[in-house]
Specification:
By secondary structure, the protein is of the alpha+beta class. The protein has nine helices and seven strands; from the N terminus they run αααβαααβαβαβββαβ. The chain has a seven-stranded mixed sheet with strand order 2-1-7-3-4-5-6, sandwiched between helices. The chain is globular, with a radius of gyration of 16 Å.
Length: about 220
């Protein structure tokens, strides 16, 4: 199992908490903090964090990133957020829009990551086989899933977690929580897989220092 520092979620910043964990795991000598990454991300409290400025910072430090998602980021970057409505389920499209502080600025930041030589993008709905394949490569993975489904509730809430281990029977992960400790959370593998696959647009991201297995993707 990967030994990864845990960071909680102070509120609507699960992604920033995950990026902090990833940075502290891969680049421990830099001693990066949640607050420092928040400034890099331009995080506004109460709003979600999109990854592009943080990803660029990580890649400038030597990290490679492979990302799977259904979003047509190229179209968003060129024509604005409204142009990707057809590539996202309506519940996710609306959730991202409502929880983003400046949707137009976010669109302009996309190329910061996509034009970086250390970045690979796979535009598809990630499968569980993709998750297992990427997890077993060098580095560390995070995922976006439906928090409500993870907690046996109805409705949709986008949530990011950091994978620590996938065994024959369970998945172990850091679940950035606000009021309780979500470190080293264990869930049965069949249940977790169902939660992941139930999202119409799940995201899978692997961060690594070894460029082996990297495929070239043009933006």
């Amino acid at each position: 199992m990967k030994i990864v520092p845990y960071h909680n979620n102070p509120g609507n910043a699960c992604a920033l908490a995950c990026y902090t964990m990833v940075a502290q795991y891969l680049l421990p000598d830099l001693k990066i903090t949640f607050e420092q990454l928040g400034k890099i991300a331009g995080w506004e409290k109460g709003y979600a964090v999109w990854p592009f400025t943080v990803w660029k910072w990580l890649m400038d430090k030597g990290v490679y990133i492979t990302d799977y998602d259904v979003i047509d980021y190229k179209l968003w970057s060129k024509n604005g957020y409204e142009s990707i409505k057809s590539s996202l389920p309506s519940v996710e499209y609306n959730a991202y829009k409502q929880n983003t502080y400046d949707i137009d600025l976010t669109g302009k930041q996309i190329k910061l990551a996509f034009e970086h030589k250390n970045f690979t993008y796979v535009q598809k709905k990630a499968t569980w086989d993709d998750v297992v394949m990427e997890f077993n490569k060098p580095g560390i993975c995070d995922l976006t899933i439906n928090l409500n489904a993870l907690n046996h509730l109805g409705g949709y809430a986008s949530h990011r977690i950091v994978l620590l281990d996938i065994t024959e029977t369970e998945v172990i992960f850091h679940d950035p929580r606000k009021d309780v400790d979500g470190s080293n959370r264990h869930e049965p593998i069949d249940f977790f897989r169902t939660v992941f696959e139930s999202v119409e647009g799940p995201e899978l991201t692997r961060y690594y220092l070894d460029p082996i297995f990297r495929a070239k993707t043009e933006f």
